[in-house]
Amino acid sequence: MDNMRIILTSTPLSGHVTPMIQAGRVLQDAGHQVAFTTAEPFRARAEAAGLYFVPAPNGAHLDLSDLDSAYPERKNIPVGLERFTFDIVKIHLEPMKAQYHGLCTLLEQFPADVILSETGYLGAQPIVLGALGKKRPVVANLGVVPMPLHRDDGALFGPGLMPVAPDSPEAVAYRKMANELAPVWNIPLTDRVNSILAELGATELPCDLFDALIRVPDIHMQLGVRSFEVPRSDLPDTVQFIGNLPSIENNGLSADLQAHVDSGKRLVIVTQGTLENRDLSQLLAPTIRALAERQDIIVIATTGGRPVKEIGMELPSNAFISTFVPLYALLKHASLVVTNGGYGTICLALQQGVPLVVSGEDGDKPENGMRVAQAGAGISLGKAYPTVQDLSAAIDTVLREKAYAKRVRELAAEFDQHNAVVEMVQLMKQVSRLNNVSQIS
After folding, report:
1. Which CATH topology does 255-416 take?
2. Which of 8, 18, 112, 395 has the most CB atoms in a 10 Å sphere around its CB?
3. Minimal CA–CA distance to 177: which of 193, 144, 153?
4. In sequence order, what are the residues at sequence separation of 6 or more whose Cβ sits closer than 8 angstroms to the Cβ of residue 301?
């Protein structure tokens, strides 16, 4: 099996779709046949990358990049466990059955050797758990978010609790919290998935939902590096870190951005990503204000697609704002990234050896911020709305203290040890040979 037929799947969130399109493009460039399926609104992006696109069926067809518009009731749910649960149900659980049926239809048209999904896409799990019988493709995961596996210290996934010794009093408190929340958190979510699996003729999950996201696929290939992840003594052999995917950006720096790079001043990039960017006063505006008097710094702000006018302020002379910036190209010249905590942005910064200030509290943002802090790669403020003073102090600390720059250089060197494309292909082929499951084609 020199060249493989690969179906790529994604939850219809921009931050999940983007790395899957990257993966599809580089796998196709390496000679493999690729089909990509997600919600119809992402067709143009997939086809612009040269991928064969198949729209997801009804029930899995919504673009969820603007969750508040898709589900207006979400705005009334408090940030924290309640909203996180709502998001998991709406984004991951409710589309699962439709995703599976869409995959079955696609497999008839495009008999694949491998289904490559991102962590949050549940539609391929029934295939591993017997819904198609023994003749099935390899099911692989690409980890585009932090791994929600259980931890040695018993901490719950979600709040972003700092790792502690498993025998410490703090770990006892972590386990107590996890046990108290289990009846309203992972147990009902797991039960709901098991009900769907039963309807589809598959066996139950072998563990709770959060572990199953990583443990059920034949192989889980995690973007990032081992030193950035929470330490675990029982990490499954099926989990492999592969660094970062290569860029498929064709955009160089505009004349304006190149002038800022050539100015000799420090560049600070600030972004709220493409999901939690409806209110630019959360992070973009206060960061610009925090650095307005710093003549040694230029702030490069990106709205993630929102209109620039939504910044709602007059820009100081040392700030530049755009709907999008070529992040790969710009990070090579940056001194710091300020972000609300998207996993992809963080990994890109670390790959380029750029320290971070992270401030976000929705979804997996607390987990990502905690990983930055525990790795020594920056400061996590843990707030959706940090103050100008919060940001000024954190930015000054990270830029001043040399330990952060030293640590991100070490992490960048670890990223350099990986070739994500080569490792992805090798791992998927290895699993196919060992498991003898790729029998559809």
Report:
1. Rossmann fold (3.40.50)
2. 8
3. 153
4. 269, 270, 271, 284, 287, 288, 311, 319, 320, 321, 322
